[in-house]
């Protein structure tokens, strides 16, 4: 399937994969840095230093302020919960590429706040900008890919590559941040990342130029005195190929109807009609009496909610493990920080396996995606049960790799189902779809990071994993109701 991609598809893949990589990389990069910054600031009553102090990094003072660290980490999740739906809304209004480019700009601002910030509140402001950038990039990428690819196999492939980039960034960010911070200081950590955001901006600008180079097509009027019926307009944005099929949904009078075909990627101008009020409808069969497809209409759709609910079921375990697995490994097996790092680094193997497996299943079992999705949730639950039964620290890598590869399989398989639901039931408002999903993931991240340590201390790691597994086993059968959208 990769060999069927056009040059513009390769540009899209490089652009969105680097954008997603940068989100994961910056998110992971600050994990080993923030505790030391907080420790130095609150115990010495000095501005946060930008210089190297590597000799004191490994030990935190006894009066370390965990509350301030929690606030710093929670700021991003809270902002994403509140702002992600708006990012999705703006993707539909302003265009996904414009929002994507804006996200890179916000990302650069956050890096500058991190690098030059010498006060705690400046780190908070940087965290807010990082949340805005992360929400903008993730929503724009999801919306853009959903609009661009109607072929569900290619859709899953591109989603998978983007997800793989995010995962690789999340796995490599902490190693880079910790090493450069220890030997070269905080300022060097963030300034070197600016080169990545610069390349990212150039790729997105190139994609925007390639898009604008394709002239828009405007068919002013379609007239048929005998009455014609049009059901669907399918537009290939880059090959300038337009297909108009005429079954039996909408009648057009002798006065005609205005049709706008625009190659500018300003969603939702993908084969759209202007109604009598001048508003755009992606599907010509939309009736006047249908309510506006806002966030509440999405949340009242049972099929969309089944898909949406699968994200917390799959992601809750990952955020719980981020908060509890290092402590479990240290207490149970005496694993050092470097040994813990090896376990997380081995996740890259799981991600690559998940990418290959997900694309194979998406292409091979296209008519049974709902069943594949249910099996993925079940395998994830089995992995959660196994992770607490491992006899040594290194053996934890086996079920953990199984869990993370199922995460990537899940993202590849659920993408075509979600886009099908939104296209058929919500006028192809993919930007709003992406915003709602980001809000759900951010909410899951907050709950998992907060509840994980509490449940770990109250009931233990084994029973915590039993809860995670039961969530998947109970939720799995609901996914069978998505059969009509495969």
TrEMBL record:
Annotated membrane topology:
Multi-pass membrane protein
Q: Name one GO cellular component term.
A: membrane
Q: Name one Pfam family in it.
A: MFS_1
Regions crossing the membrane: 12-34, 94-114, 120-145, 157-181, 187-210, 303-322, 342-362, 371-390, 396-418, 430-456, 462-482
Which InterPro entries does the record associate with it? Answer: MFS, MFS_dom, MFS_trans_sf, MFS_Vesicular_Transporter
A molecular function annotated in GO for this UniProt entry is: transmembrane transporter activity
Q: Which keywords does UniProt give here?
A: Membrane, Transmembrane, Transmembrane helix, Transport
Q: What residue stretches are annotated with the Major facilitator superfamily (MFS) profile domain?
A: 12-484
Name its cellular compartments.
Membrane
SUPFAM superfamilies referenced in this protein's UniProt entry, alphabetically: MFS general substrate transporter (SSF103473)
PANTHER family named in the record: GH10249P (PTHR23506)
Protein name from the UniProt record? Slc18a-3
Q: Which organism is it from?
A: Schmidtea mediterranea (Freshwater planarian flatworm)
The upper taxonomy is: Eukaryota, Metazoa, Spiralia, Lophotrochozoa, Platyhelminthes
